[in-house]
Predict the 3D structure of the following.
Amino acid sequence: MATPMTIDLNTTLLANHDGDTESVGSSGSHRTTTSGGAYPVPGSPSTRQPCGQSARTPLLARTPSRTAGAGAALETRVYEYIARDPPFASMVQSIELAIEDGHLPKLITQGSSGSYFCSGGDSGGMLGVFKPKDEEPYGEFNPKWNKYLQRILCPCCFGRGCLVNNHGYLSEAGAYVVDEFFKLSVVPPTRVVLLSSASFHYSKVARLKAEAVDKVSGGFPDLGKHLHPGLPMKMGSLQTFVGGYKDATIVLRKIDWSRFSPALRESFQRQFERLVVLDYLIRNTDRGMDNWLIKIDEVDGVPTGIHVAAIDNGLAFPHKHPDDWRAYPYHWAYLPNAKTPFSQETANLLLPILSDDDRVETLVGRIFDIFTLDKSFSKGTFERQMAVMRGQMVNLREALRKRKSPLQLVQMPNAMVMIQHRVPQRGGSERTYRQVVAKRLPFFKNW
């Protein structure tokens, strides 16, 4: 059940403002990236390789030739998308070379899907966490048997009806797009990549085929030049590993705030607000206290810095607000920090963007570019996902203007804002929006 309502573009949703905003008073970036020079765009003359590519050629620099037609075009899009971020591309290259040297990604035992720690080899340290699409909870090759049994024996208690199955890797990358766009600086760099490793889960047929190709290539090198060696590439999200952080549950249970200066306490509150903003905008349905991290810098036992990192963003961007059994609340809403009104600094950072319809639609376009990398992309589903996000923006804008607290923000009515139609205009376009306030609530409001 929902009540439709037409809203005024300029007064209720997205009024026009000019200029960009900069992050004020940030405590510094927590992100760790691999240094390196700019990585050439795949497909350029400097990176194009013949069919018989050397085993030492980084996968990012190879010509997408494992699949034909649309598949090759999709691989090219992924490679070019990665190459636009040279430090991230350098990290991916280090991981690929480490895999070829035998330093295979290691399966993470926690969680409900297949995810892997990826290193840079003997001296590279831990670089990232890779989450393949086909090893997600509903994926064909999910290695977690307990979740497989749960899905088979009790499907009514498995999955989340408001989310798109096997799109967790897109949600991870989309969260980083939102983080970058609003200059929140709480999500480690995360992008969609293609990786292949023997430690990933494949079918027996895929492994036998790879072994056969290797044998043929070894015995008949000329024939091997026309074959595609190795296991199939897996598409998934790769998130930069952040070192020195601990679960918020552990840190906040033991922390003694009297040891921290007022400036550090203020810094934590501002970063906490940015975590709130991120989760609220993407409607994260899985923000517990164990999947956001805190790092404390100390010198001689005295705290000198505090940093927040938002990881595990794979259960976000729903196509409707949760309205079945569970509400999937934000667990940070139970913290004392959630009762403090949003700061003027946070309002100054976000309101100019939230009040500009063109800039908001620019964000939608960037998320669209990521989500269309998936072969099962549905425009209708995407529009509903963005309608949820726009509804969250309406509430967030009102909360910031009235200096409400994060707790008051999450208590506001759920809404979806859809674009009714676009009328082309000279030099731009005029959009009409329709807001729908959700009336149906989940059975368990606090679970």
